[in-house]
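A protein record pairs a chain with a discrete description of its three-dimensional fold. The shape at a given residue is found from the number at the same position. Here is what such a record looks like in full:
>
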Amino acid sequence: MGKRETQSHESSAIRHGRLKRRNAGRTVLKGVAATVTVVAVSAVGVGAWAVTDVMNDVQPGVALVGETPGQIIPDVNSIEGGINLLVIGSDSRAGQGDGYGDPKKETGVLNDVTMLLHVAEDHSNATIVSFPRDMRVPIPQCPRPEEDGGGFYSAMSSQPIHASLGYGGIACTAETVEQLTGLDIPFVGLVQFNGVVALSKALGGVDVCLAAPISDKHTDLDLPAGNVTLEGDLALQFLRTRYGVSDGSDLGRISNQQMFLSATVRELKEAGTLTDPVTLYSIAKVAAHNMDFSQNLRSLNTMVSIALTLKDIPNDKITFVQYPNHYGPDGEVYPTIQAAEVLMDAVKADKDLTITDGTGGSVPKDQKTIAPNTPETTNPSTASPGSSEAPDDSTVELPPGVYGQRADEVTCAAGNG
């Protein structure tokens, strides 16, 4: 499901419209975890009264370009090319109280986390791609809000991907990811800083393990090695920490986030959460208060369809992967083009993925220490692509330097202690 090359920016059938930039703060990672639970609403029969109550709490959806307001979205099984859902988390402090620094001083609006969920058309597997916040990418023309004069912001040849949200809002981040991946993204969700606190409480916490203690004065996080339950502020601190991971980088933080999400997926299924109407209702209420949706994603039919799809995908067919990247001579992070092409071609073809180079940060639960994975200092463009398909042509082996894990793999945060 690649870019529709014959359509213009304005006339594209399912494209991102002029979504108003939000001032409310958004957060890291919890994006996909929140979305997985949100779209689970009514998956197995929440009462009609509860559904109506939940939907009354959801913010009005924003119509995308080419979308008819109020249009009934078809069942997800009929959407060509599967599902592409973008989750954006911002580090904005606006509207989030004073618990994350002085909002008058912390005025930046960055998409600190950008994650893309892709579900295969036959619903046999799912891939969640994390884009490093500092990775430099082209920023395309982005819709300018009508209150700012309308039209488009100018394209930029190279900027950190985290700048896209502050530059042109949700639509700009979505357009940037579309251009980078070649995928059309009709579904977008934006989550708040405080959302992870409330949502993790609604989930009853998420159990993770630490191979070493984590200490990070920047997020007031201090955790011992071993098994811990992350709930409320503790969950948010864990997901935000970068100085508390083995290499102190955003790239290491992504590994922590993927480990947290893998644990979340396992616990949701093992606890029967997706078949418990009471739990689904309480989670949906929390999510409705802490998320903004594109109009397509706000559709109850779409939420239910995606929930039913995710519920039935085996954990060993759900893969979390970091978009291939490397450090350039200038110390900046750049996409690793060849490896990225292997990854995205496999995603577009709905292939199951095999990761050959580990998580990039977390460690298997029975392993006590880790040697940090350091990205290449130059673009490994001459390296062998490392792509090979299994005999049944259903799986693609990703090249060395592409990190991630499956949802069935139990890993532990490396820590810095």
In short: Residues 2-50, 368-391 have pLDDT under 50 and may be disordered. Residues 31-413 form a domain with the Aminopeptidase fold (CATH 3.40.630.190). The chain has one domain: 31-413.
